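Quick question, first post here. What does this chain look like in 3D?
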Amino acid sequence: MGIKPRKMTVGLGTNRIEGLTDGIFAFSMTLLVMTINLPDPAAHLVPLSQLLISQSDKFYNYGLSFVLIAVVWLIHHQQFHVIRRTDHSHLWINIFLLMFVALIPFSTSLIGDYPRSAAAEIFFDLNLFVVGSLLFLNWAYATLGHRLVDSEMEEERIRSGWRRTLVMPLAALLAIGLAFFNPAYSSYAYLLIPVILAFPYFRSRGDQ
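> Answer (accepted):
Ran it through. Tokens below.
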């Protein structure tokens, strides 16, 4: 009696994780607006325009975090444009990624409530560092040995994805370093991300 050939594992579909991802990202981006709140105008007896100006830092934090979440979502979307299947380890990488994406509204409110606090800034930076690192791990796991992507996928496209996903964790490390010297300048490190990602070196032909 002959030995039956072992079936190839084709992996799990990605539709469920993509649906969950879109929901978590949309919810996190929406929650960010809750980090902006005006003081009681009756208690301050100042015009609304002054109250709005007094919250300029929180508006900046809101805009920054919204754009950063959008960048993470965009890169994640680009990754899943070529990731054809998933497995249990890959699913858990994405679940942990979403867990820290959902934490961004809290860390954003922290730097708004404790401005110029090194501890608050470092917490926010560590949050972004973990998100960026898990985004890198998501791509590295999927493409190593063409595990979850097409076998004919070009190596240059894989390498450009590695470079692109390293930008956020490196920017977060720079922000952490700045937080130790002057927390007020820490968040400016993230303004480099869209500038760096605009360079062709961090894109490849076929990226969406």
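The longest helix spans residues 56-82.
The two ends are 51 Å apart (CA to CA).
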